Amino acid sequence: MFFASGLVTLLLSSFAAGAILKRDPICIRIEATISRASNVYYPGDPLYEKGVSHWAGSSAQVSKCVVEPGTAADVGHVLTILGKTRTPFAVKGGGHASNPNFSSTTGVHISMYRFSLVVYNPATQTAQIGAGLIWDEVYAALDPYGVNVLGGRVSGVGVAGLILGGGYSWKTNQYGMTVDTVTAYELVKPNGNVVTVTKASDPNLFWALKGGFNNFGIVTKFTLKTFPQTQVWGGMVLVGPDNIADVTAATAAFASVTDPKASLITAYNYGFPEISLLLVYDGPTPPPGIFDDFLAIPSLMSDIGTKSFTQLVAGFPTDSTKGNRGVFNSISLLEYTPSLLNVILNETNYWGAKLTPKSGAFISYSVEPFLPSIYSHNTDASAWPPYRAKPFQPINIFFSWTDAAFDNEYHDAMRTTTKVIYDAAKAEGQDLTNTLVYPNYAIFDTPLSTIYGSSLPKLRTIKCLVDPQNVMGLAGGWKF
Ligand SMILES: Cc1cc2nc3c(=O)[nH]c(=O)nc-3n(C[C@H](O)[C@H](O)[C@H](O)COP(=O)(O)OP(=O)(O)OC[C@H]3O[C@@H](n4cnc5c(N)ncnc54)[C@H](O)[C@@H]3O)c2cc1C
Ligand SMILES: *[C@@H]1O[C@H](CO)[C@@H](O)[C@H](O)[C@H]1NC(C)=O
Ligand SMILES: *[C@@H]1O[C@H](CO)[C@@H](O)[C@H](O)[C@H]1NC(C)=O
Q1: What is the rounded CA–CA span in Å between residue 363 and residue 361?
Q2: Domains of the chain, first to last
């Protein structure tokens, strides 16, 4: 009895001492350097768990600590320490990276949550938005002013990664990619200096940040152009197996729609629901004709209606697979013909049947048609897309599963199915040279040249100038 309680005490005290000793010296040094606007959290703390969490569980890792910087100056202090000690680290915005290690680390994890302001400036028709926000929060904050920015199309997506990689939005047909609407970045450079990067202040770095992710430092704030926002029309429609051919025909025919306020995503899914359609018109009512084919198809469920933009995006939830293993991949296509859509449907069913027994949760192919003019909106150009003369449009392939033992199998299947669709498009006569892969959808081992193409040499030159010590090379992601 006596011995037993003594042993328990001993175990507890050595456990406590061990836990304290285990606190990483770099984390302790960061804690001692940052201001009271920032904090460091250790394993076991709910804010640590929140910090390292990701939309895809496979994109998360156990880090030594989570740093939540509250000021750009503190981000600078943290980067300086990490650079001097060559400590691997990660920067997380909304945590929606579909690739492992892009915003996670076994080193020091930086979560940007505290950069959460949205400031609308009516005089310049711009909004400053913090790098720790998700788009739902930005849309809700701008709603009262009757304006909006170009951001994510479904609920939960982070601001930072989407902007730093390009950004396809529900307004892309009207105004281009999100990068085309950025007017300034507040950037903490790898040497710790806080700068505002604009076209006038540093045209090369401004260009490089439009697609270059975390290669040039940590962005704390973006300034985006705003556009008038009325009520919108749209919602989600689920269609069952009997009507897939109608959906395919309507999706192919949508290529003839020229009204830039109309957009859609057609997702072929394995199992229920076979089809999910996201239909959007950026106005209270679409002119007759545009969506009639879709609306004539018998649906299992539909919540189409006139609503606020915030409500529209909230109505496209993505948490049914949250926390699962996951991977995205993509190619860019010139055209979604009926025959290509049938190849995509066949791939959905083929891989769905094959992978579902292997802890599969969701096998989905999202067709994202855009107008041929979407790359014509930016006269300044950008690191991504590096080539704007071709009207390429992405497909988003998404596999979700639960057992990590199958990771490699899913990654292989993803590469195989992507190639099948690529080859089918080529066999149809699509000239896919210079159709670049969207970095926010590409699987982690995609060669940089097929993403960044002709931008790569210039990106590498700018990278060496801005980050001669390659501090940002200590963080994961697409690395120049
Ligand atoms: C459900 C879902 C829906 C999506 N919908 C769309 C869509 O409609 N349109 C579209 O274009 N894309 C979409 N995407 C892709 C999305 O753009 C990327 O996943 C994007 O990288 C997410 O940004 P994040 O901040 O949430 O990601 P994170 O995982 O936090 O970061 C992604 C990358 O950006 C870097 N990064 C993050 N913050 C900073 C910073 N402050 N400074 C420097 N580097 C930073 C990270 O280090 C990491 O490499 C979607 C993804 C998901 C999972
Ligand atoms: C991610 O990082 C871990 C080490 O932390 C490594 O074992 C793994 O291979 C990496 N995954 C990818 C896809 O790069
Ligand atoms: C369906 O896809 C599988 C896998 O890519 C392929 O082997 C098969 O031939 C395809 N079937 C049809 C009818 O295209």
Answers
A1: 7
A2: 2-111 (3.30.43.10), 118-228+458-474 (3.30.465.10), 232-452 (3.40.462.20)
CA 158 to ligand 1: nearest atom: 26
Dump pLDDT digits (tens) for 129-187.
Answer: 999 999 999 999 999 999 999 999 999 999 999 999 999 999 999 999 999 999 999 99
How far apart (Å, rounded) are the C-alpha atoms in residues 352 and 400? 11
Helices (H), ranges, 315-447:
338-355, 407-427
C-beta 346 within 6 A of ligand 3: yes
Pocket of ligand 2 contains residue 444 by CB under 6 Å? yes
Residue 125 Cβ inside 6 Å of ligand 3? The answer reads no
Residue nearest to atom 28 of ligand 1 (CA): 95
What is the pTM for the complete model shown?
A: 0.95
Name the residue type at position 380: D
How far lies 66's CA from each of 26, 249, 324, 325, 389, in Å? 12, 49, 22, 22, 43
Ligand that comes closest to the CA of residue 211: 1
Distance 253 CA to ligand 3 centre (A): 24
Could you report the per-residue pLDDT of 42-89, keeping only the tens digit for each? 999 999 999 999 999 999 999 999 999 999 999 999 999 999 999 999
